[in-house]
Design goal:
The chain is α/β, with parallel strands linked by helices and about 325 residues long. The chain has ten helices and 16 strands. It is globular, with a radius of gyration of 20 Å. Its EC number is 1.6.5.5.
Length: about 325
């Protein structure tokens, strides 16, 4: 019997349930996927706690890797036996499962040199890093970025990729241990936000100028400091709200702080076009396959330990990527 994590009400990690599920045959445009590894992302907690409202009951998770076991009518992009990975949003919700039905469209074939575990650990984080560095801003060697949560899954990939592009990377962390991890993955400088003023330190490091771009996945607690870290006409990229939603503000604030630009992008809009998704995935797979970017899987959980996994994630006990490994897969 297949197993899956489901939840029937929003709330803390304790609402997640490990259950038996029946997986039928794929319908038109669908495949049945035997999953080997499943990604754990901070965005998963937004579905669970109601930040992203969805009809309940529901499955959990949007990213995994595995093997295609059956295909429905009209599926042409993958075949039975293909090794694949996927990420998405509502169209892939339900990834915390040993096997599942899923639309074929989001599936990405895996190169032979990318393992299932690596794929589950990096598909969402890697494609997010890809669009942040290759689509959001026209970076040039010598540009600088402020990267919040620099020791997290996305942060470690962004830092390595930014170094390849010749950027100066300033990363924020909560401890010296995380600072060491961030520096080992490409951060030129780290700022411990627990006892340092981030914006003030950024100004010191940039000789008063500020950075070209801020990647802020924290939200409420860092928003104003992030704006104050930007150079004139710099870009603020709001990529998450780990500390809570950003309060409403008057857009004139952006003018007062240097004619700043602000965007709140979503991965779905950067991989909606199949050709663009393929291009971003190919560049990501090339960097990882060649070893130029390494994916650190620092936490592995059994699927039935989803409550602990979410608790660890929200209490900032994790670094790098976290995955669920399907036992017996």
């Amino acid at each position: 019997m297949a197993k899956a994590i489901r939840f029937y009400e929003t709330g803390g990690p304790q609402v997640l349930r490990y259950e038996d599920v029946t997986v039928g045959e794929p319908g038109p445009g669908e495949v049945r996927l035997r999953q080997v590894a499943v990604g754990l992302n901070y965005a998963d907690t937004y579905f669970r706690n109601g930040t992203y409202p969805i009809p309940l009951p529901s499955g959990m998770g949007v990213e995994a890797a595995g093997v295609v076991e059956a295909i429905g009518a009209g599926v042409t992009n993958v075949a039975v036996g293909d090794r694949v990975t996927y990420t998405g949003f509502l169209n892939t919700l339900g990834a915390y499962a040993t096997e599942r039905l899923i639309p074929a469209a989001p599936l990405i074939k895996l190169p032979d040199d990318i393992t299932f575990e690596t794929a589950a650990a990096m598909t969402m984080r890697g494609l997010t890093s890809a669009y942040l560095l290759r689509r959001i801003y026209n970076f040039r060697p010598g540009d600088s970025i402020l990267l919040h949560a620099a020791a997290g899954g996305v942060g470690l990939i962004v830092a390595q990729w930014a170094r390849l592009l010749g950027l100066t990377v300033i990363g924020t962390v909560s401890s010296e241990a995380k600072a060491e991890v961030a520096r080992a993955h490409g951060c030129d400088y780290t700022i411990n936000y627990s006892h340092e003023d981030v914006a003030q330190r950024v100004r010191t490091l940039t000789e008063g100028a500020g950075v070209n771009v801020v990647f802020d996945s924290v939200g409420k607690n860092t928003f104003m400091g992030s704006l104050d870290s930007l150079r004139r006409r710099g870009l603020m990229v709001c990529v998450g709200t780990a500390s809570g939603p950003i309060p409403p503000f008057d857009p004139v604030l952006l003018a007062m702080k240097g004619s700043l630009h602000l965007t709140r992008p979503a991965l779905a809009d950067y991989i909606a076009d199949p050709a663009e998704k393929a291009a971003l995935a190919a560049e990501l797979f090339d960097h990882v396959g060649s070893g130029r970017i390494r994916i650190d899987i620092n936490q592995k959980y059994a699927l039935q330990d989803a409550v602990k996994a979410h608790s660890d994630l929200e209490s900032r006990k994790t670094t790098g990527s976290s995955i669920f490994v399907i036992q017996g897969a």
